[in-house]
Amino acid sequence: MAAIPALNPLKIRTTTNGEAIEGFKKGDDDHDEQPLSPMSRLFHEPGSNVYIVGIMGLKTKIQPHIFKRNLVHTFLNNHRFSSLQVKDKETGSMKWIPTQVNIDDHVIVEKLDPNMESSNKFVEDFISNLSRSPIESTKPLWDLHILDIRTSEAEGTCVFRFHHSLGDGVSLMNLLLACSCKTSDPEALPTLPGNIKKSGVTNSSLWASLGVLWNSFVALVMFVLTALFLEDTKTPIKGSKGVEHRPRRFVTKSVSLDDIKLVKNAMNVTVNDVVLGITQAGFYLYLHRRYCEGDIGYNNFPDNIRLRATLFFNLRATTKIQDVTGRSRHGTWGNKIGYALHPFKIGPKKDPLDYVRDAKAVMDRRKASFEPLFTSFFANTVLKLFGVKVAGKLNHKIFSNTTLWFSNVPGPQEEISFCGHEVAYIAPSCYGQPNALMINIVSYKDKVTFVLSADEETIPNPHELCDDLEESLRLIKASICSSHTMSNL
């Protein structure tokens, strides 16, 4: 890390030509020289040094000066985006140190070849290349890359990169949306889907309470066994040692939200149940092809595959969009996440709807347990008792013993404009995790997008997995429509 800089009495934020936009005296921000939280510190440990990538396609030609002017008055009002993370050489602790910020160091307008062969491939390759290098610690750990080139989905693309120590996916989605407005009403913030009450945990009946305790106990046992030795089956999507240090390929596949809601309503399940069912079915299609078509030398599809996801849960009481400063009394900002180990049953089904039924059964047990709260409590306890080194090794062991990360982040329900530019799509993801695959689901307006972050050494054809996810939804929807037709005969 960089040496601790001398603190100026006045912190100045500047435009592209160095003109002062705003300044305030040291002490005006009550976060000056505060230590990093244990969870933020944990994201600097080997195997946990994770970056969040936010890809945003825009419907209009990008005007960089408008972006810079807006970000000066929004991002830089959050102390984490205008502070260095500085390590004390003697104690090993880290602090937020306010610094002078030049917006040009963070908003980079890339020089592009107008005669490139494929703009889609260029954008995909560019984002992949970002995962090859970290952000220099001599500046706040975020940047924005502007690719002012037309692709099949957008007139231009913005790629945000944030170190995970700045906050989790919900925090950063909150920040992006706080800089946005409804396209139909420029004075109104976007709206997010409402919170879903976890009825299993709050049910006060004796049997329900015993069920919660049993589910929590089973989850605890699996958590401990995974931390000790229990590893997922070596499959074509299970990463090898050191996968967290390799570059990633980011690919997306958007499907109709109405199609997912059709399945949801017909089966009386949640949207999350449906997307998990789609993912489980997609894994079977992809793995069956990899095993049985001989591209990696397998002849037979194995029985009893153990394939688990680290499934992340938001532990906040609300997902409401709040102020960008990070001082909300509701605790919106930071890394406030727990996780559960979610098993996928990989195998053929006579009825594609069984994939969704399996997902619902597993998720009902997750909801009727304290597993996400437990993992958060356990991680914080280990941090306090044994320090970040031990907590980092524990996290790395658990994550690397599972197959993938899975996250579902709610997005805006209507079309939005970000810094005066209409948004075509939003695609968040991560790199630096000790898994070969991460699947992030984000909703936006009338679509749901599957965002894959894949290690190409392990998964050389991630676009095929995207196609398998789309095909899985088609099969599940067709089964719903067929059942409905038969019931009307």
UniProtKB/TrEMBL annotation:
Residues 333-477 form the O-acyltransferase WSD1 C-terminal domain. It is a single-pass membrane protein. It is found in: Cell membrane; Endoplasmic reticulum membrane. It catalyses: an acyl-CoA + a 1,2-diacyl-sn-glycerol = a triacyl-sn-glycerol + CoA; a long chain fatty alcohol + a fatty acyl-CoA = a long-chain alcohol wax ester + CoA. GO terms for cellular component: endoplasmic reticulum membrane; plasma membrane. One of its GO terms (biological process) is triglyceride biosynthetic process. Pathway: Glycerolipid metabolism; triacylglycerol biosynthesis; Lipid metabolism. Residues 84-275 form the O-acyltransferase WSD1-like N-terminal domain. Keywords: Acyltransferase, Endoplasmic reticulum, Transferase. In the N-terminal section; belongs to the long-chain O-acyltransferase family. This is Diacylglycerol O-acyltransferase. It comes from Centaurea solstitialis.
